[in-house]
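User: We ran a pulldown and think these components assemble together. Before we commit to crystallization trials, I'd like a predicted model of the whole complex to look at. Sequences follow.
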Amino acid sequence: MTDFLQLVISGLATGAIYALAAIGFTLLWQTTQTINFAQGEFMMLPAFFALAAMRWAGAPFWLACIVAILCSVLVLGIGYKKIIIDPLRGQPGLAVVISTLALAIFLKDSVKDIYSAEAQPFPTILPDTMLSFGGVNISLAQIGVLVVATVVILVLNWFLTQTRTGRQMQATAQNPTVAKILGVDIDRMVLYTFLINAALAGMASLLISPIYLAKFSNGEVLGLAAFVAAIVGGFNQVRGAIVGGLVIGVVDNLAAAYVSTAYRQAVPLVLLVLVILFRPQGILGRKEERTV
Amino acid sequence: MKIDRFGFVFGALVLATGVAMPAMAQDVIKIPNIIELSGGGAPVGQMWKNGSTMAVEEINAKGGILGKKIQMEFVDTASDPGKARAGVQRALDDKPMAIFGPIYSGSVNVTLKLTNEAEVPQIMGGEAAPLTAQGSKYLFRTSFGQNVSMPKIAQYLKDGVKAQTVAVVYQNNDFGKGGRNAIIPELEKRGIKVAADLSTEPGQADFAPDVVKVKAANADAIFVYLTEEESARFLIEAKKQGVTKPLIGETTLLGQKVIDLAKDAAEGVKGHVGLTADADNPLVKDYDKKFTAKYGHRSDHNGMKGYMAPYMLKAAVEKAGKWDPKAIAAALHGLTIDPAKEPGILLNGTWDENGDIDRESYLAEVKGGKQVIVQTLPKLKP
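Assistant: Here's a predicted model for the assembly, 674 residues in total across the polymer chains.
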């Protein structure tokens, strides 16, 4: 039982990080109807912004984290929107898919060439002090990951539902034409979405890198996990992405322990297939109907 | 008249170039270096590339081998056995004198038949035990095969750790499976029970479930046989979950790279090391100093393997007395390279009929963020 609890808690901590990236998928989908296939690389890059700030500018870790989030917002938020998405408006969806795939390769190889091909140690925001509860060992860092991810998600939820700007963003996501008629600055709301996505990716990067180690190829695994989490939870609901992330984190851990490590990556994909077959809108997603 | 003169000069230049080019070409021997420069094996390949580049520069600066300069042609396998095979096949079309690489056992496994059929020596970095057991007369190791290193570790687990039960954690690829298949019979031969037999995936990032299973096995010691980054991640997770049993491994668990990544989670890890820049040997220390000065970071065992490959070739060509692939391979079989005569080889080594190497090795422990050699194990056949 203690093993099971250990696996669940560890899975929740990892799943919370997946959830942060999965939220980014859902936000971008809702506002721009685009899927960012470079989302994994968006989770990989901020750690290298932080490492670069520490290595080349001698910044302390706390400052490097702030620099990483700011650079993420600048490069992966504003830069991504202005350079990749805006020029492709009105183009077929496939153009965005191919562009984001190309962006993923570009970011990955750039980090490899500019920084290093080798994995880099990454400091933890909280120390690895062990706490034991009934035989279950939980590190302070794991609790920290859960707390930080939960706080970020709650703040985001509050922002989207309780603030004027948040409600305008939701209106833009639900029906941009009507939102525009009502006087909502659509372009600004879309930009905010990209900025939030970039900031969430930055947070996820800083939380996951102490576990995964910072490496140029991390995005491959993270992007897939977040994508599956978003679909399983519900691509058109932020709360769906949260649930999806947590489910994938826990299922992944339990599959590795009780099925087989060799098939651990297959189990979330099987879950994905089952969700698509029997509940295509995802666990918490809402059905969308479109007139043809 | 002007045209005639121009024509004469032009013709002379063409003729001179035509005569000179082959002569220049013959002064340079091209050696394909087919290694993992991208993909998951990029760090390994980069170390090997740096080591072999440094060795070739040294050899060329001293006049080359039998008066010929070496020029390496790097081919990226992208850490993919299929691409490695294609790279070796293309390289063999040019009838090279030898091939360096690949380093990943899986890539060596799919290329060794090609070099054997083409009768071209292949000096590689793979460590999986089955590689040299397939009868190739043209395959040569730069490091111990698992058939040599695993008996040493099993003995250490019995005598040094006094373990009666061991949990084995290995990577699910040619490297890891080779190690697992080599250690388990050695443990059983010594009366040590395998309490858990766990495979992990190459490139795996999260080891929480694996560590939970290892803890549940409650073995006297845990044998970890993963590549460097995965080793570091495993150690970090083991520390996080409060694992207190001895963590024992091979070169890939105790390397400086793992220590740098895992930091204090690597503290106390013990095991057998085939090649290390921390060896108490003046030639190795000198190599370590040169490598660090040239590349700004220390070499790991893959850098040392890459460095030794050109010197193995040099010793074999000089013994054969000619540049001929068959003669080079024949010269390498049974060859002992003495560092007193060839300092670039760093350690006294002997290559047997299978291409396996015998040389001294070390028992090491991680103390104070450094690999500390606690015992030097002599050659099996001094």
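Residues 18-25 of chain B have pLDDT under 50 and may be disordered. That may be worth checking against your pulldown data before setting up trials.

User: Thanks, that helps.
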